[in-house]
Amino acid sequence: MFSTLKWKLTVIQTVLFSLVLGLGLLLTYNVTKQVHISRSVALLRQAVSAYLRNPMRNAPRSGLPAGIAIISSTGEVIFGTIDTQHESFEKFLSHVLSVRKPSYIKLGNDEYLVVKLSVQTFAGQSELFLLSPAGGMGDFLKLLSRMFLILWAIFSLASFLLGHYFVNRSLAPMKRITEELRNISASDLSRRVYDPGTEDEVSNLAKTINDMLNRLQLGFEMQNDFVNDVSHELRTPLTSIQGYAELIEKFSKNSEIVTESARTIRETVQQIIDLTENLLTLSRPVSKVELVRLDLRKFLHEEAEEFSRQFRDFTFEVEGEGEGCSDTRALRIVLKALVENAVKFSTNDKRIILRCGDGWISVKDFGIGIEDSEKKKIFQKFYKSDRSRSTPGYGLGLALADKLVRAIGGTIEVVSEVGKGSEFIVKLPKC
């Protein structure tokens, strides 16, 4: 891949450089050519002007540069020697008479610089065409064009070699990053790719890849922790089921032991079912959400009555009034998870307050509270603080509540003080 890219970049930069260099040399050649032509034309005009001060046909020939010829606008050669017998003379003559600005015209092997000149004669204004052998001028321009061609070839080759070197050097970090990425696998995500530290696109790419590897490593670690936590949480109830099953088998004739063991097995199985349902809910995306406007006080009153029947040792109070938008089923699950959490951590004061306002509801308890360092962790799956290890549950309720609240477009936050209780506030989406 890098070999192909390397040659593509090298060829592209060489072609672009050669084009720019070629255009520059061509422009320089044309400018130099025009300067030399202008200089030659000026000298030629000066010589002709000196010559025309004397009678044209009787003036000494030394008044004009050697080899010069003059042709009238009628095609008559009035001065100098031109091979009028040449097979191409007629075509040559027509080209001469069509000249509007200084240019070169060939007749056989001879090359002439042709200049149009208007002069005043006894008969009035007349047009003459001056022909001067190109001579050294032509040789100089040919030498100049060859020299420029050689310069173009040399510098194009140098551009190719330098381009190849710098492209190789520029792609070296990319090649190293690619090789290191090939050696990174899911079994070892602790490795990182080389960052040249140049703060350019390659360095930014390396930083982005390393950030991605950080996220992947964190995700794999969380997955491993999740599997370990599930295994740990299932081991206890399964061991309990096994133990009570052995009791039934051993004391099958003792109806009291069999009945108690069967009841315990049934309760333990129900705990496993609840754990499995919570895990499935957490693992599945929430795809269908139907937001409806709710009278939040009425909603909390109805739920409070259900909670009072379920948790007979607790008193539930409803405060505030307001309306909000939410998915009814999701909000009911969230509220139940928050109430179960409040019940679990309430000790002496068994009072729970359900509060509401426009666009929010909350669950307030007067239990053991939450330390500041744990407030961001309590919404993680299976997280249980040191002070809550002895309480029942699997640490999934708050994680489930957080997921459902985010699914309906809301947020959840906690206000807590150790020893005085906690309040979980759910802010609902706007209608």
UniProtKB/TrEMBL annotation:
Major enzyme class: transferase
GO molecular function, one term: phosphorelay sensor kinase activity
Residue ranges occupied by any HAMP domain in the UniProt entry: 168-221
Record InterPro entries: HAMP_dom, HATPase_C_sf, HATPase_dom, His_kinase_dom, HisK_dim/P_dom, HisK_dim/P_sf, Sig_transdc_His_kin-like_C, TCS_sensor_his_kinase
Listed EC numbers: 2.7.13.3
Gene3D superfamilies tied to this protein: 1.10.287.130, 6.10.340.10, Histidine kinase-like ATPase, C-terminal domain (3.30.565.10)
Catalysed transformations (reactions): ATP + protein L-histidine = ADP + protein N-phospho-L-histidine
Keyword line: Kinase, Membrane, Phosphoprotein, Transferase, Transmembrane, Transmembrane helix, Two-component regulatory system
Record-linked SUPFAM superfamilies: ATPase domain of HSP90 chaperone/DNA topoisomerase II/histidine kinase, HAMP domain-like, Homodimeric domain of signal transducing histidine kinase
Domain of life where this protein originates: Bacteria
Ranges where the Histidine kinase domain occurs: 229-431
Pfam family, one: HAMP
Transmembrane stretches, start-end: 12-31, 147-167
Chief localisation class: membrane
Subcellular location: Membrane
GO cellular component: plasma membrane
PANTHER family the record matches: SENSOR HISTIDINE KINASE TRCS, SENSOR HISTIDINE KINASE YKOH
Protein name (record): histidine kinase
Organism the protein comes from: Pseudothermotoga hypogea DSM 11164 = NBRC 106472
